[in-house]
Specification:
By secondary structure, the protein is an alpha+beta fold. Helix content is 20%, strand content 33%. A hairpin with a 3-residue loop joins β12 (218-221) and β13 (225-233).
């Protein structure tokens, strides 16, 4: 019996020692929070509502007619009924930010203050200031503010480049208006591309709990240095689901410096169109001389672009840009965007199985010019103005795109499969082309289509 009790105490002792050892390895954030929370600010915004004119009777628009009246009268009010909308109230917003300098420069997200008529900054001591928007950069979601104050506690700026996956990080902000809340986690990944207007930002992914109101707040490392700006979350519920994203501080500070100096941001431009599926196609990578799907495959080089002038060609695979590895196509835009325009960089490409280093002078990104240099608008060779291909697993033609014209007006949709036209079977594109050519003018043709599992008939004009 005594032997069994001794064994229990021995196991319990080992467990307690292990628990103590594990606890000692966990970080203690208390000193970090006490030292740096004063550098975090709460940002509130107010946006005046759009002016609405008071209208009567049939002048009422659908948005102004209450649901109760619309139930009886549709979207038109009787002429003898005078309905006036209540006065709209200003729209308010909430976010976070952090102090860059003791003389009042503050960094936050663009989406926190975008469109606001009034921006106010509140410090931890409760002092509130009216803020001036120095400049914004929607493409990176960064905004620089200025308040009239001196001797403010500025943050220490770290390096997002040196940040390692698995490293502990901490966020301070005002989620749901709960001021100066602290959450912690680890870096889950680096260089995440989210697409859209954020294509120039290789996001830091973390599992730090971020919620509405945290946007624009700082992401600290264990040394108390800011390594990112908390910007976005991945959610299906509107709240935190374990995945959050921060803008790397290296990129944010580059943008902040430009906004402070000139009020605008200039990005580098290379002038290429990439082929994203390359990074998922091992067979294609091997056929082009690579063991792995690394690099950015160039599908097209814009005429007159820095890439063309620097010797980059279609079918080249960019492996390194300015000394930094390009592992996926999404790595390239942020690297190019960070380069100061008119600077020369080395670009390592794989061409016909051979590696070659090219020197390219980077241009200035101009969205209007880039959109004009984009791929040509699709055109069709038929009177319906649609693009079709043979349906792979059945007779008919698959509608790939419906361009403006009679078919679009009749309701034809991309993905439809045309199986009959004017009483004739359409077995493939050859039948389709022949039938369209022989259609009479100034009439209409009955078209039988398969839309999913449903059969639909449309009458398409043949003017």
């Amino acid at each position: 019996m005594l032997q069994r009790i001794s064994m229990v105490f021995a196991v319990l002792g080992v467990f307690l020692l292990a628990s103590q050892s594990f606890a000692e390895r966990l970080p203690d954030f208390t000193e970090l929070v006490e030292e740096h929370s004063a550098s975090v600010v709460k940002i509130t915004t107010s946006t005046a509502p759009a002016e609405r004119s008071t209208q009567q009777g049939q002048g009422q628009g659908q948005q102004q007619v209450p649901e109760f009246f619309r139930y009886f009268f549709g979207d038109q009010l009787p002429p003898n009924l005078d309905f006036q909308q209540p006065n709209p109230t200003p729209r308010e917003g909430l976010g976070s930010g952090f102090i860059l300098s003791e003389d009042g420069y503050i960094l936050t997200n663009n989406h926190v203050i975008e469109g606001a008529d009034d921006v106010r900054v509140m410090l931890t001591n409760g002092t509130s200031y009216q803020a001036e928007v120095v400049g914004t950069d929607p493409q990176s979601d960064v905004a620089l503010l200025k308040i009239e104050a001196e001797g403010l506690p500025a943050v220490d700026i770290g390096s997002s480049e040196d940040l390692r996956v698995g490293e502990w990080v901490l966020a301070i902000g005002s989620p749901f208006n709960f001021e100066y809340s602290v959450t912690a986690g680890i870096v889950s990944a680096k260089g995440r591309a989210l697409g859209g207007s954020d294509r120039y930002v290789p996001f830091i992914q973390t599992d730090v709990a971020i919620n509405p109101g945290n946007s624009g707040g700082p992401l600290f490392n264990l040394d108390g240095e800011v390594v990112g700006i908390n910007s976005q979350i991945y959610t299906r519920s509107g709240g935190f689901m374990g995945v959050s994203f921060a803008i790397p501080i290296d990129i944010a500070m580059n943008i902040a410096d430009q906004l402070r100096e000139t009020g605008q941001v200039k990005r580098g431009w290379l002038g290429v169109e990439m082929y994203p599926p390359f990074n998922e196609d091992v067979a294609l990578a091997r056929s082009m001389g690579l063991d792995r799907t690394e690099g950015a495959l160039i599908a097209r080089v814009f005429e007159g672009s820095p890439a063309e002038q620097g010797g980059i060609r279609a079918d080249d695979i960019i492996l390194e840009f300015d000394g930094k590895p390009v592992r996926r196509y999404s790595d390239l835009p942020p690297l190019v965007g960070q380069v100061k325009p008119e600077s020369s960089v080395d670009v390592l490409v794989l061409r016909n199985g051979e590696r070659e280093t090219l020197e390219v002078t980077i241009g200035i990104l101009d969205d209007a010019r880039v959109s004009q240099a984009g791929p040509p608008a699709p055109t069709s060779d038929n009177a319906f103005n649609i693009l079709v291909t043979n349906a792979e697993d059945r007779d008919g033609v698959l509608v790939e795109e419906v361009l403006p014209g009679p078919a679009q007006e009749a309701g034809l949709q991309s993905g439809d499969v045309i199986t009959m036209m004017g009483g004739s079977f359409v077995r493939g594109k050859e039948d389709f082309d022949r039938i369209v050519r022989e259609l009479p003018q100034n009439g209409a043709v009955a078209v039988r289509i398969l839309r999913g599992t449903n059969i639909v008939y449309l009458a398409i004009p043949t003017e």
